[in-house]
Specification:
The chain is mainly alpha-helical and 95 residues long. It has a domain of 50 residues. It is built from 3 helices and no strands. It starts with a helix and ends in a 6-residue tail after the last helix.
Length: 95
């Protein structure tokens, strides 16, 4: 009962995670506008929250947060892939 508000909030994260995954699946161009540092920070923050939920035994909150975490991992992978592709395409000037 003491985690009711936490679980309710994570239920909204759960639903929004699936909506974001569906949107990204339908239109992958939507993943272009994300900032690398911001994306890495949010992946780290959600990962730490998941670790805390597991440590405290908040398994419902843990499970409800996974779709949102999955979405941000996909965004992070996309941003990193785009950054590495862009850096590998730039010519190296010889001096």
């Amino acid at each position: 009962m003491d985690t009711l508000l936490l679980d309710a909030g994570n239920l909204f994260l759960f639903l929004s995670g699936f909506l974001m995954l569906y949107t990204a699946y339908r239109d992958r161009k939507i993943l272009k506008g994300y900032n690398l540092l911001g994306t890495l920070l949010i992946v780290l923050a959600i990962g730490l929250a998941l670790a805390y939920y597991a440590q405290q035994g908040y398994w419902l909150s843990f499970a409800l947060t996974l779709p949102n975490y999955t979405y941000w991992l996909i965004v992070c992978t996309s941003v990193l892939g785009r950054k590495f592709r862009r850096s590998s395409l730039t010519p190296i000037s010889e001096t």
